[in-house]
Design brief:
With 661 residues, the chain is α+β, with helices and mostly antiparallel strands. The protein has 26 helices and 14 strands. The protein has helices at 2-23, 33-48, 62-75, 84-101, 106-109, 111-123, 125-130, 137-156, 160-174, 180-192, 195-202, 206-224, 232-249, 261-267, 280-295, 302-323, 333-353, 357-382, 402-415, 430-433, 436-439, 471-475, 501-513, 519-524, 575-586, 637-649, and strands at 269-270, 276-277, 424-427, 446-449, 463-467, 482-490, 493-500, 543-548, 551-557, 565-567, 598-599, 612-613, 615-619, 625-628. A five-stranded mixed sheet has the order 4-3-5-7-6. It has a five-stranded antiparallel sheet with strand order 10-9-8-13-14. Strands 1-2 form a two-stranded antiparallel ribbon. The radius of gyration is 29 Å and the shape is globular. Residues 513-640 and 656-661 have low confidence and may be disordered.
Length: 661
């Protein structure tokens, strides 16, 4: 009993650590094109309630439906209000859930092999990286292991409950991604070559088997039919395999790789001046477990049967994925998870093989050091190198430079009369387009075309974005009144952005005004320092807009407690105030160099404490700035007038009346 409690406590602790790895800075990495594609599809389901399975180039619906609760909680039914965390929470939770699922096979693997496997699951660079990736892969691994774990529990205590749970996991696996069939083939081979497993399979109660198959079918049909509203999806979930055979053979794939692609990724990866990456510890320990499984293959005890099943299952799955010509790094986690399960057995077998106690401690210490290094790789993979092609998990990933393009579009929207309702034309092949639809989700008038000839002749866009293959055709239709810039989408992929010259000139005119707001100029206008710098003395600001780097916080004064400010949503402002806030937010770093040293608010009972804010603007309900403060200064009318003049010259507000002398 005590041993079980200790194992349970350790498993829960490791699960907490796994969550830490997966939730840390979950929004730091720029969205991959595949992630954006899945997020947009979830957004359609979120806003319309409709889902239709596409058999050509998309996967099962479980990811979308399981994301809905998180999306509704964080953004209601407005896709534009979602963010990266909204979606990446789903694979992150399932990635950590893999650790908890190990409890179901604790008696088959053994307590300490289970703990080691849990630790390796938590810290594996690939497992952590793709637990933070909004694609179907982590859900597929979770549900596939769920079938194995629940099936194992059934063999130990046959009952309708375990049979039904196995069926539920099987149905979810089918409804997640078409590559479930590869895991099914590997499991079938593993059962076929194991006398003990075959004996257990034939001993399954037929009613239990039929119940499991029935519930699996119900679960799969429920999801693919979009909860009984689109029955064609059920048929397409079968017909899709004709299409995926073309991908497997390489005829329809742009991602053809050699057979050793995955092994190289796991054993030794070193690109340019980047660090060395290796999960050889897991592979080596798994190989030791396979040797142990071979030696025990004729044993009839359940533990030996499970070990033999996992060894054959993992080996066959590795071979299948290596033979298939189409390869993406995230596909490797299906068989990598099998290796991790085996590695738990291999690590304990290695320690048990050493006779002397001091040698056991030495081997354990070496394994712990290797695991520490593995965890360090996980931190590096999800931190500094999260979008760097020198990371083996990064594949055809979006360049952070794309965020500069998105920022430029927001800046231009701020000076356009229609603001975010301006018309944007995107003419690019689909591969170059993603993830723009995700980053443009707050812009309602964006049109996407793959050929320049298909763009309506009467379209009058404010911005035109083109891929290089469409650039000559687009350039031939335009005149000289455009400002051109280039931004990187991913390695070797560029997008050209054209901005109407009049909008560009307006934007640059505003930026040229910014140097006037230097600290020296503000002091000339009458800004004076406060003695304590802890309270704000402006009477009476309706809104306070603070900006630190690219993060914006909007506060309104609470009438009942004048010394406190409460968070308000930007859309609660009238149109004029929203425009002023939007424009200031869109600038790269407005008022940078002004010398402001306002502090981040930590509201307490006494008043705000300021730390490290670059600047502060007080905006009234009519959009007219009421004041600018520096280190808690009392804002004077001359400063207010100066800020309003800048906003007026930018066309954001009407020119304020000249104050009476």
């Amino acid at each position: 009993m005590r041993k079980n409690l200790l194992a349970c406590a350790l498993l829960l602790a490791i699960t907490a650590g796994a969550l830490g790895f997966r939730l840390w800075r979950l929004d730091a990495r720029v969205m991959h094109g595949d992630e954006a594609n899945q997020a947009v599809r979830t957004g359609i389901l979120m806003e319309t309630g409709r889902y239709e399975y596409d058999l050509k180039d998309n996967h099962g619906p479980t990811l979308y439906y399981l994301s809905l609760p998180f999306a509704w909680l964080t953004a209601g039914k407005h896709f534009a209000d979602t963010n990266e965390i909204t979606f990446r929470l789903v694979p992150a939770l399932f990635g950590a859930g893999l650790v908890l699922l190990l409890w179901l096979v604790r008696d088959g693997l053994g307590r300490w092999p289970m703990i080691v496997a849990a630790l390796l699951t938590a810290i594996s660079p690939a497992m952590t990286f793709y637990s933070r990736y909004y694609i179907q892969e982590m859900l597929l691994v979770f549900f596939s292991f769920g079938v194995i774990a629940a099936g194992w529990r059934y063999t130990q205590a046959p009952s309708f409950g375990w049979a039904l749970l196995t069926g539920v996991f099987a149905g979810l696996t089918y409804a997640t991604k078409e590559t479930w069939v590869l895991s099914f083939v590997a499991a079938t081979v593993a059962l076929a070559v194991s006398p003990a497993a075959r004996a257990g399979l034939f001993a399954v109660n037929r009613r239990h088997l039929l119940a499991a198959l029935g519930v699996a079918a119900v679960v799969a049909v429920t999801f693919y039919s979009a909860f009984f509203t689109h029955w064609r999806g059920v048929l397409d979930s079968v017909l899709c395999y004709g299409n995926y055979l073309g991908w497997a053979g390489g005829e329809k794939s742009r991602h053809i790789q050699p057979w050793h692609f995955y092994l190289q990724m796991l054993l030794w990866f070193h690109e340019g001046r980047g660090p060395v990456w290796s999960e050889a510890l897991i592979v080596a320990l798994a190989a030791m477990a396979m040797v142990a499984a071979w030696r025990r293959r004729k044993n009839t005890d359940p533990e030996s049967a499970l070990l033999w099943f996992l060894a054959v299952y993992t080996l066959v799955l590795t071979v299948i994925y290596s033979v298939i010509r189409h390869k993406s790094p995230w596909l490797a986690i299906s068989f990598l998870h099998g290796m991790i399960l085996l590695a738990g057995v291999g690590a304990t077998a290695l320690i048990e093989a050493v006779r002397q106690r001091w040698a056991k401690w030495l081997v354990g210490a070496l394994l712990a050091a290797a695991a520490w290094q593995l965890g360090g790789q996980a931190v590096r993979a999800n931190g500094r190198f999260c979008a760097d092609p020198r990371n083996p998990c990064v594949y055809a990933h979006t360049s952070p430079d794309l965020l500069n393009l998105v920022k430029r579009v927001e800046q231009i929207a701020a000076v356009h009369p229609a603001r975010r309702d301006m018309v944007i034309e995107v003419c690019a092949n689909p591969y170059d387009t993603w993830p723009l639809p995700w980053y443009f989700r707050k812009l309602p008038n964006v049109g996407y075309w793959t050929q320049a000839a298909d763009v309506p002749a009467d379209l009058r866009p404010a911005i035109i974005i083109t891929s290089m293959d469409q650039e000559p055709a687009v350039a031939g239709k335009l005149g000289e009144d455009w400002q051109t810039e280039f931004y990187g989408v991913r390695p070797m992929v560029l997008l050209n952005i054209r901005i109407q010259k009049s909008l560009w000139d307006k934007f640059m005119a505003y930026r040229r005004l910014l140097p006037e707001l230097s600290l020296a100029r503000l002091r000339e206008w009458g800004v004076q320092s406060s003695a304590n710098g802890t309270k704000l003395s402006v009477t009476p600001p309706e809104y306070v807009w603070l900006s630190k780097l690219n993060k914006t916080h909007l506060f309104s004064r609470d009438a009942s407690t004048p010394t406190n400010l409460t968070i308000q949503v930007g859309d609660s402002l009238d149109l004029g105030a929203r425009h002023a806030l939007l424009y200031l937010k869109a600038l790269p770093d407005p008022f940078s160099g002004c010398g402001f040293a306002l502090q981040e608010e930590m509201w307490g009972g006494v008043g705000p404490v300021w730390t490290n804010y670059a600047y502060m603007v007080l905006v009234g309900t009519n959009g007219v700035a009421r004041g600018v403060g520096e280190n808690g200064v009392a804002v004077v009318p001359a400063t207010v007038q100066a800020v309003n003049r800048v906003l007026a010259e930018a066309g954001l507000i009407a020119a304020p009346p000249t104050p009476k002398k």
